[in-house]
Amino acid sequence: MAVNMKSMIAETFMALSKTKDVDKITVMDLVKACHISRQTFYYHFQDILEVIEWSMQQAFQEILTRKMDTDVPEKTIRTFIESSSEADALLKKLLHSKRREQIETILVNIVRSYLRELINRQESKPNLLLADAKVILDFCTYGIVGLLLENCGKKSLDKEKMAHQMVKLISKGIEILNEK
Q1: How confident is the model at residue 155 (pLDDT cuts 50, 70, 90)?
Q2: Which end of the chain is more exposed for a tag (fewer CB within 10 A), N or C?
Q3: Which carries the bigger pLDDT value, residue 157 or residue 121?
Q4: CA–CA separation, 74 vs 1, rounded Å?
Q5: CA 76 and chain centroid, separation
Q6: pLDDT of res. 44
Q7: How far apart, in Å, are the Cα atoms of 11 and each of 105, 109, 122, 126, 137?
Q8: Between the CA of residue 152 and those of 19, 54, 142, 146, what are the distances in Å?
């Protein structure tokens, strides 16, 4: 069976991040741990940040693929919250690294993609002006990412309640803008 090299490199990065500061993980570390050449690494990724970005996109894409079929936004957002909580240690390391800004951008892009997809799947699409749609999309995206980052690792977090509150805010925002 063929090895999915991208997955192997990404999994190796995740394993190394458990024992080493993410800012100190180098391409050479990954090459040695994966028993591959530098050329093989660079064939699949440009740099370490691209490994991180690809890994995060794969993880959230898996969530979206599983949850978009349910057409229940609350379940998908709850899964985002749970996944952020489960990846708490790595997420904290990444957010305390030199790559914080890039990590936040990756999260924003992932959540924005989900929200766009959610809006596109609605049978009765909101009747919003493009500028209004962008504002509500940005507001909800940054709000969700901010709450995910703020609550990352909180053991007492009521994930069900938070997901319900987020969906309520998103729905209310769209409803208010439709009332114009």
Answers
A1: confident
A2: N
A3: 157
A4: 38
A5: 12
A6: 95
A7: 21, 22, 35, 40, 32
A8: 20, 20, 15, 10
